[in-house]
Amino acid sequence: MASPSPFLDNFKIPDYILVPDSQVENVPVVPHSPVLVFINSKSGGQLGGDLFKTYSTLLNPKQVFDLGEHAPDKVLRTVYANLESLNVQGDQFAKEIRERLKLIVAGGDGTAGWLLGVVCDLKLSHPPPVATVPLGTGNNLPFAFGWGKKNPTTDQRSVETFLDQVMKAKKMKIDNWHILMRMKAPKEGTCDPIPPLELPHSLHAFHRVSEADELNMEGCHTFRGGFWNYFSMGMDAQVSYAFHSERKKNPEKFKNQLINQTTYAKLGCSQGWFFASLSQPTNRNIAQLAKVKFMKRHGEWKDLVIPPSIRSIVCLNLPSFSGGLNPWGTPNRRKQSDRDLTPPYVDDGLLEVVGFRNAWHGLILLAPKGHGTRLAQAHRIRFEFHKGTADHTFMRIDGEPWKQPLPVDDDTVVVEISHLGQVNMLSTLDCKSKSVYDPSSPHHEDEEDDSGEEDSLAEEFRKFGAADTFRIPDEVDFSHLS
């Protein structure tokens, strides 16, 4: 049993704030950083469950939620409705709690994205900023905001250290992105997902987007969702798909973060990612798979020129990919002037679009100032797939991959990504992400040298997030989100 600590009073929330119609308590001091804690107890092997026990012991157990048992949208609706009711009654303590409230989510990137989707979707008054505990394999979201990428220890000291960081953390806005996918409906079976297609939890089926949508065609289905970190297509998504398929077949072999990362690397070799130009047919090149258009700002669509050797394309929102690598880097002043390129800010309404030839090309990210092939920065981007030499490709959203069928007749598969809005995150002093509005984010910090550079040339958006498009069906194996 943990010993009482005055420090923990900075975070504790009394029962009457959390449970509607409970007896109002006379609490003398408003906590500095009241928190609601959401934990995927199935993430990180046993770590998720252990972390849940520690938080429940140190804080009020009623402010700590196991995501396997409590849907975050229902929790937040209840708490915020109660806060509003108490505020109307003139409860100043409740008013202060609402203005100071912060969220902590512990799990993999899928879990963190789920909670962010809920916050975005609910359109709360005083939406709370979110801190992320790394408890997955890649942990790109936590790493991008300075929370680390190694799974934490779960003892009292470790949790108190994290809470101290939460109390001192800075609020930071980040962009979120809407994704729309249309494809021909299957001749047999139901939709959402299309059997045997297993789509990410963030993509859900709609028979039509709106009555006026010109692309609503008989026999077609529309999928809609969103992401926070990246959308990718090609070889990297193929390796990720192989990893997730293997983990689904043999979950007992994937209980350790180091083992997971080692297995991932081995699959990269076995899938031919390191020798793509030799082992993979040319019909896997992105330029042959899809016609790609992008929009830099609000305006007209432009064709995206993709070099024929590119096997993987990444549309990146955060400077953290494949466990913390930054594929875009920082373009030097000449590139910023000649090609209208900017550093990768997380709140500028732009995605960085980067290409890779193979895994060896990806290894350049490990070098100082290394980066992939910068293709464009986009406010919107559209992929159109017509009948061709390949019958499928692989796609991935924030770590969740799927095998995407491509047209076999004269139909078209369309994937369109557009900027939706922003959400609040909490960041530490080790934050890797940069804000275009923050004077402490230098525009030319760590910019690359010229040497060694390799450059190649409505209604459907209204709802977004876990409350609808990020919802987790009851029958879903929750451990998949870890």
TrEMBL record:
Cited PANTHER family: DIACYLGLYCEROL KINASE
Protein's name in the database: Diacylglycerol kinase
Region annotation Disordered: where it falls in the sequence: 434-457
Biased composition range(s): Acidic residues: 446-457
Catalyzed reaction equations: a 1,2-diacyl-sn-glycerol + ATP = a 1,2-diacyl-sn-glycero-3-phosphate + ADP + H(+)
Family annotation (Gene3D superfamilies): 2.60.200.40, Probable inorganic polyphosphate/atp-NAD kinase, domain 1
EC number(s) reported in the record: 2.7.1.107
Domain DAGKc per the UniProt entry, residue ranges: 30-183
UniProt entry tagged with the keyword RNA-binding: no
Keywords: ATP-binding, Kinase, Nucleotide-binding, Plant defense, Stress response, Transferase
